[in-house]
Automatic annotation (TrEMBL):
It comes from Archaeoglobus veneficus (strain DSM 11195 / SNP6). This is site-specific DNA-methyltransferase (adenine-specific). Keywords: Methyltransferase, Restriction system, S-adenosyl-L-methionine, Transferase. One of its GO terms (biological process) is DNA restriction-modification system. It catalyses: a 2'-deoxyadenosine in DNA + S-adenosyl-L-methionine = an N(6)-methyl-2'-deoxyadenosine in DNA + S-adenosyl-L-homocysteine + H(+). Residues 158-472 form the DNA methylase adenine-specific domain. It is an enzyme of class 2 (transferase). Pfam families: HsdM_N, N6_Mtase. One of its GO terms (molecular function) is site-specific DNA-methyltransferase (adenine-specific) activity. Residues 22-148 form the N6 adenine-specific DNA methyltransferase N-terminal domain. Its EC number is 2.1.1.72.
Length: 509
């Protein structure tokens, strides 16, 4: 097969997911799965650059009348490429000598970062030389490299590449959750994005960005509803404390076709990195699943933080749970609305958390509380909650809060035993309930702030709405007939037993 023919072959979704499954089986728990993501990213960039090069070469020769020698040199110009890629480190060149693979990969990633400022601290984050000091890891690397060599990702769509990244992250989520890594199930991400409903020209901010999955879904939501050109007008911002997670987030956004995303590294609660003059920046929509019950962010620590008086004006949380510190930061950073996935316990715990909760309620910022089903999350079986805050409440919603009890809205997870998930119909039911903002018996209820005050500012959803229990209808006449028939049968059996005993006594005597 010629190179010209090869670049026209598009790897399908099934082929790519199959390769990802083989890669996952290959490394299992022996190797950090992030190395798979980096290799997949590099393969994408290499194949894409090769396709762009050949297309430019053809154009320059056939349309511009350049000689092949002139065209070959000019086709490398950045004007023909999304990223500058070092030609001597294309996948085909790297494959020529697998014994030098760790060194060449490290050199390739370093050069990519140098040539593309937006990839600095991203592709050069993982060290393949350190990784392959163990001989077994070298063998795994070679096998992974050969596995991906069978793919051509030059024309594969961003959505397919994005699905592959999502599959890999989701596959290893149960394992990484045990190590403390936060993973928000994709259907929970879908639910919160549909509720906050970002629009073109709005800014969306995630202060606990993780792999940027909420921001990516916000982009896709606008793309699906308003079109790709309108989606490009959405401004995405995220801050992540872990540099390696930040690197994967940046790659994740790029493979999803989102190059213009503003991601930064840093501790959000202590030092929010997005500034607007002498203050922190505000955004139209703020969404996040911050670490639940994070310790170490009590009053003493938060008073050392930047802009602490503005960001934590409702009070300081206890040292053993930063839930309401995250919520306050998000509220202070929002112009329109906030959507946060949080531990259910922060809805009703007392002490300092109750003081903060009361003050926020009195400012009439809370719009909706959603109790999620149990066993949705990989790192806990406890039900989480979603809080929706609205700084632009319509008149008819003022001094009211909608409580949605979605504890029964789930199906069994098809791949992970003992886990549940939200199905499409469950997501739509919850979103519609939020939009309609009215009572539905056993599912949701609009509650006044006065009633919440009577309950001592407790936001426990089951205080306000409890699912209807399925009551089985009983046909009394039929049940009575069946009971009489059973009694008749019992009398018949008793008669036979008496006859048997009488005959037995006769024989003995």
């Amino acid at each position: 097969m010629t190179l010209a023919n090869y670049i026209d072959i598009e790897t399908t979704r099934d082929e790519l997911i199959r390769a990802c499954k083989q890669a996952a089986d290959l490394i299992r728990t022996r190797v950090d799965y992030k190395y798979i993501l980096v290799l997949l990213f590099l393969k994408r960039l290499s194949d894409e650059w090769k396709r762009e090069y050949n297309e430019a070469l053809k154009y320059l020769i056939e349309k511009e009348g350049l000689s092949r020698e002139e065209a070959e040199e000019l086709a490398k110009d950045i004007s023909f490429h999304r990223f500058m890629y070092p030609e001597k480190y294309t996948w085909e060149e790297l494959r020529k000598n697998v014994n030098e693979l760790p060194v060449k990969l490290s050199e390739a990633l370093k050069l990519l970062a140098e040539k593309n400022p937006e990839l600095q601290g991203v592709v050069d984050r993982l060290d393949f030389l350190e990784f392959t000091r163990h001989r077994d890891n070298f063998d795994i690397l070679v096998q992974l490299f050969e596995l991906f060599s069978g793919l051509n990702l030059g024309r594969t769509s961003d959505s397919i590449l994005g699905d592959a990244y999502e599959w890999i992250v989701g596959y290893f989520a149960p394992q990484k959750a045990k190590e403390g890594e936060v993973f928000t199930p994709s259907e929970v991400v879908e639910l919160i994005v549909k509720i906050v409903a970002p629009k073109p020209l709005e800014s969306v901010y995630d202060p606990a960005a993780g792999y940027a999955r909420m921001l990516i879904r916000a982009y896709d939501y606008v793309k699906e509803k308003y079109g790709e050109e309108e989606a490009k007008k959405l401004f995405l911002y995220g801050q992540e404390v872990n540099p390696t997670t930040y690197a994967i987030a940046k790659m994740n956004a790029i493979v999803h076709g989102i190059k213009d995303i503003n991601l930064v590294v840093g501790d959000t609660l202590k030092n929010p990195r997005f500034k607007d003059g002498e203050s922190f920046r505000r955004f139209d929509v703020v969404i996040a699943n911050p670490p639940w019950n994070q310790d170490g962010y009590g009053e003493v620590e938060l008073k050392k933080a930047e802009f602490y008086e503005e960001r934590f004006k409702y009070g300081y949380p206890p040292n053993n749970s930063a839930d309401w510190a995250w919520i306050q930061h998000m509220l202070a950073s929002a112009k329109r609305c906030v959507g946060v996935v949080i531990d259910n316990g922060c809805l009703f715990r007392g002490g300092k958390e109750k003081t903060i909760r009361k003050a926020i309620l009195m400012d009439d910022l809370l719009e909706c509380v959603i109790l999620l089903p149990e066993k949705l999350f990989y790192n806990t079986g406890a039900p989480g909650a979603i809080l929706i805050f609205n700084k632009q409440k319509p008149e008819e919603r003022k001094s009211k809060v909608l409580f949605i009890n979605a504890s029964n809205e789930y199906e069994k997870h098809p791949e992970v035993r003992k886990l549940n998930r939200l199905g499409d119909e469950h997501i739509e039911k919850i979103v519609n309930a939020y939009r309609e903002f009215k009572d539905v018996e056993g599912f949701c209820r609009v509650v006044s702030l006065d009633e919440i005050k009577e309950n001592d500012y407790n936001l426990n959803v089951t205080l306000y709405v409890f699912p209807k229990e399925e009551v089985e209808e009983i046909d009394v006449a039929r049940e009575w007939e069946e009971l009489k028939a059973i009694e008749e049968e019992i009398r018949g059996v008793e008669g036979k037993i008496e006859e048997f005993l009488a005959e037995l006594n006769y024989r003995v005597s």
